[in-house]
Write a structure and sequence with these properties.
115 residues; 4-stranded antiparallel β-sheet; 11 strands
């Protein structure tokens, strides 16, 4: 059973930084994609950033230049460094991994950016 453990959310002021972490366990298969999604109240869940197993990345336009995704394949961990945070970044952030065609989700971590 794949488990995802997230950490790093919290409350920060506009312009501040946070770093999210997500550790995956419970599978010996290669993790094809690791990424982060977010969902603000009243909005649909949206992709923030994701990373392929060979280092490719893509980002939502709204976070380009401010957020950086990275992953440690040895530890099956993905990180999201968030800089210059804005109130619009306030949301629950969910870790997501794709293994053998199946999507797995973390429990979510709240990020709140105060103005």
């Amino acid at each position: 059973q794949v488990q995802l453990v997230e950490s790093g959310g919290g409350l920060v002021q506009t312009g501040g930084s946070l770093r999210l972490s997500c550790a995956a366990s419970g599978s010996n298969d290669r993790i094809e994609l690791m990424g982060w999604y977010r969902q603000a109240p009243g909005s649909q869940r949206e992709l923030v950033a994701r990373s392929t197993s060979i280092g490719g990345t893509n980002y939502a336009d709204s976070v380009k230049g401010r957020f950086t995704i990275s992953r440690d394949n040895a530890d099956n961990t993905v990180y999201l460094q968030m800089n210059n945070l804005k109130p619009d970044d306030t949301a629950v952030y969910y870790c997501n991994v794709l293994i053998q065609g199946y999507n797995y989700w973390g429990q979510g971590t709240q990020v709140t950016v105060s103005s």
